[in-house]
Write a structure and sequence with these properties.
This protein is of the alpha+beta class. It contains two helices and eleven strands. The protein starts with a helix and ends in a 5-residue tail after the last strand. The structure holds zinc ion.
Length: 214
Amino acid sequence: MLDEHDKYNRYRTSTGRKCMGRQLAGKKWRLITIEMSSQENKTCPYCAETIPAAAKRCPRCRIWLSFRSLRHPLVGVFVVVLPVMAAYFMMGYKLLNHFQMMMNPPPFYSDFPGSIKVLESRMNWADTTDGRFLFVTGIVTNQSSASWRGLEFDIRFFDSNGQMIDAANGRSLFTILPGNESAFRVSVKPLLSSNDYSSFRISVSNARSAKGPF
Ligand SMILES: [Zn+2]
């Protein structure tokens, strides 16, 4: 009896398309000539050997040709190589970002003193279900060449005698571009009676670069 491997070797050692094989006719083995069409054969992509088209695994180099097997070389590429490459790519990208940040650091507002000015502002009172609110609205302008965000407002309130009676701080969420204006509102929960708030003064004490990570 021929086992599968011997049968294969017979196909392999034959020349051309005509292969010798054996077939059981009745109770006797007889030699037959099998015409093999091109559809029944394929070339192994790894060892370039002609192998049966239905082979899931190359009989010569033993490499799995079916993607359903974990031992197929491309499965390894997808499971291991691509994720590793992606991880390296991410690391490279982060390093590049970090390097750019080091070479071209975001500016500090302290290097641009007074470049964000409050053009106009006013104080208003609002009665809400949560009580009485004092809010300061106005317009700021950016006279520097940098973009800023997270503006910190310093607000001081005075009584009719010019004595400071209260203070408040606010932070903006908007970004203000070079040469631009932006409107703002800071709401304050007053601790004193509304009659005590006679006047106020507002300024921008700090801001963060719009280029920075935070
Ligand atoms: Zn092979």
